[in-house]
Design the sequence.
């Protein structure tokens, strides 16, 4: 089993910055894809950014140029640096993990963090 623990959410004014962190632990050597999704009230959960073990990165159009995803492969941690935040970025942000390498075996499983609230408001 794999656990994801997020941190770094909070309240910030428009134009401000926040950095989210998510650490994976448990039965894991390396994660295949780690990333972030978000869900605003009354809306579906949408992709924010993902990063593969090979470093391939994908961003939602709405965050390109403002958000930066990065990974610490040694510690199975993913970060999301969010700059120039807008009120429409307000949502619960979820860390995601797809695919786990553990003791020579690949497990095609999906894991989610508990979510961290990001509120952008003056």
Sequence:
């Amino acid at each position: 089993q794999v656990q994801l623990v997020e941190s770094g959410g909070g309240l910030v004014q428009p134009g401000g910055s926040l950095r989210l962190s998510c650490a994976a632990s448990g039965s894991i050597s390396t994660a295949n894809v780690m990333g972030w999704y978000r869900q605003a009230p009354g809306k579906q959960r949408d992709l924010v950014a993902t990063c593969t073990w090979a470093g391939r990165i994908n961003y939602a159009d709405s965050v390109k140029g403002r958000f930066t995803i990065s990974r610490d492969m040694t510690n199975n941690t993913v970060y999301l640096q969010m700059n120039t935040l807008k009120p429409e970025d307000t949502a619960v942000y979820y860390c995601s993990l797809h695919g786990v390498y553990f003791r020579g075996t690949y497990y095609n499983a999906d894991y989610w963090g508990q979510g961290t609230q990001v509120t952008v408001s003056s």
Observations:
- The two ends are 40 Å apart (CA to CA).
- The CA atoms of residues 68 and 84 lie 12 Å apart.
- The chain has a mean pLDDT of 96.
- The first strand starts at residue 2 and ends at 7.
